[in-house]
Amino acid sequence: MAADTPTPPPIPNQPAGPPPLTGQTAPPPPPPPPTTADVPTSPASAPTAAAPDPALHHVTEQTRTYPCPSCGGELVFDISAQKLGCPACGHTQDIVETAGRAVVEQDLQAAMASLRSGAANRLSQRIEGEKEVVCQNCGGHTTFTGSLTSTRCPYCATPIQREDVHEAPDRLAVDGVLPFQVDAKQAKSAIDGWIKSRWLAPGEFKKYHEKGSFASVYAAYFTYDADAHTRYSGQRGENYTVEVGSGDNRRTETRTRWHPVSGRVQNVFDDLTVLANDGFDPDHVHDLEPWPTASAQPFSPEFLAGHLCRTYDKDIGECFGEAQSRMKATIDETVRRDIGGDKQQVDQVATDFQDLSFKHLLLPIWLLTISYQGKPFQTFINGATGEVHGDYPWSKAKIAALVDAALVVIAILVALFAG
Questions:
Q1: Coil, strand or helix at 317
Q2: Which of these, 263, 262, 265, lies nearest to 228 by C-alpha position?
Q3: How many CB atoms within 10 Å of residue 21?
Q4: pLDDT digit string, tens, across residues 42-93
Q5: How confident is the model over 283-295, as pLDDT tens digits?
Q6: Helix H or strand E segment including 174
Q7: To which H or E segment does residue 284 belong?
Q8: What is the distance between the alpha carbons of residues 231 and 44, in angstroms, rounded to a whole number?
Q9: Which residues is 148 bridged to in the sheet?
Q10: Residues near 270 by beta carbon (within 8 Å), at least 6 away in sequence
């Protein structure tokens, strides 16, 4: 069994609370009395000691868990309380955060330069294959597949996190995490309503409680900021009508008069989010936007306790390609609005992207996966806002009944008009 670095939690019959700190040094001697030149207006407060790390680090397995200091159970991130909580005894404790930490934008051009240099192989390294670890609670074997970094032991349900990924020197560090706000009860209620409103779905599909996999997962995202200045040239089309032909062939035609135009527009992009994971339906995940990224917290592994989590599969270069495509589509809309008129023709566009920055965030998703007739269907819930989007099968029997009903209505209408 791996050597654990923190002091073991107290046994259950001891009073609740975190384990005592050991090995502390004697406090420093008091400072000399103030001189007349610097008389304080109020007593100086003593510096606050850093809170102890609640994690139990398993060195040989390169994993961490969060034992409850009150009963010895396992702590998880309690969504309702927004704290670490023990499902067994109800103990809760605050998330440990370093004073002064903030979610900071990173220089995109510097990171892209690293991708183009010798560091490219390191920064774009994909987490592939499997890593098997031994659960330090029950001794069972837990497998992390691909980019999965946080899971539960399949035998005792102990939340386990890998420590060799998010903080690895050859990976882009996580800048922040948007904690779950929608708990399991709220998520199930939202998805119940969504599935019940899909009245063309088969009845078996609606029994997802029995047949589906429902899990909370933090997905990896990159967000991008940019100040885009665009120069364009093109033509503005103004429609007018003319009467043509004669007699029965006389008619009105719409024609367009074109005028050359040019100008400049500006677009400011703030936290444009791009999913960095494979395996999710990109269209439905995109529909979960907008994300309240302004509420993201500085990254702490404690937010992940008890929930699945994945690191990025696609690096900032791959994701920035998608971000640029979306930026260019927005810029094109802005240019056309600036041109005005009834029609627009854009001939040339030159965009200067300034103040490029990015953040690596973990965003919360409730994921329902149902296998129906051998095909998987995914339904996603935004774990911060409750927005629901997904895919579902259509019942052939219900479609046939709908067609039959439509034919009956048509037959009745025909009979009425004929009468």
A1: helix
A2: 265
A3: 9
A4: 444 444 555 677 888 888 888 899 999 999 999 999 999 999 999 999 999 9
A5: 999 999 999 999 9
A6: none
A7: helix 282-286
A8: 57
A9: 310
A10: 225
Report, in this order, helix, strand and coil percent for the chain, each rounded to 5: 20, 35, 45
Neighbours of 3 (CB within 10 A): 8
The predicted structure's pLDDT at residue 195: 79
Contact call for residues 341 and 238 (beta carbons, < 8 A): yes
Q: Low-confidence residues of the chain, pLDDT below 50?
A: 1-28, 34-47, 120-124
DSSP for 100-167?
A: T-----EEHHHHHHHHHSTTHHHHT----SEEEEE-TTT--EEEEETTEEEEE-TTT--EEEESSSTT
Residue in this structure with the two tokens 């885009």, named with its chain if needed: 228
Q: Please give the structure tokens belonging to residue 29.
A: 């001697």
Residue 230 falls in which region: left (phi positive, over 0), alpha (psi -120 to 50) or beta: beta
What long-range pairs does 169-172 form, CB within 8 A, spacing at least 24?
170/122, 170/123, 170/125, 171/123, 171/125, 171/311, 172/111, 172/123, 172/312, 172/315, 172/316, 172/360
At residue 271, the 3 state secondary structure works out as strand
Burial of 348 (C-beta count, 10 Å sphere; 0-12/13-18/19+): exposed
What pLDDT is attached to residue 167?
Answer: 66
Contact yes or no for 263/373 (Cβ under 8 A): no
Whether residue 306 contacts residue 76, with contact meaning beta carbons closer than 8 Å, is answered with yes
In this predicted structure, what is the pLDDT of residue 127? 66
Contact 182, 381 (CB under 8 A): yes
Torsion of CA 379, 301, 89, 83, to 10 degrees: -80
State the pLDDT at residue 380: 94
Parallel/antiparallel/unpaired status of strands 148-152 and 130-134:
unpaired
- Sequence-ordered list of residues with C-beta below 8 angstroms from that of 66, at least 6 positions apart, any chain: 54, 55, 56, 74, 75, 76, 84, 159, 302, 305
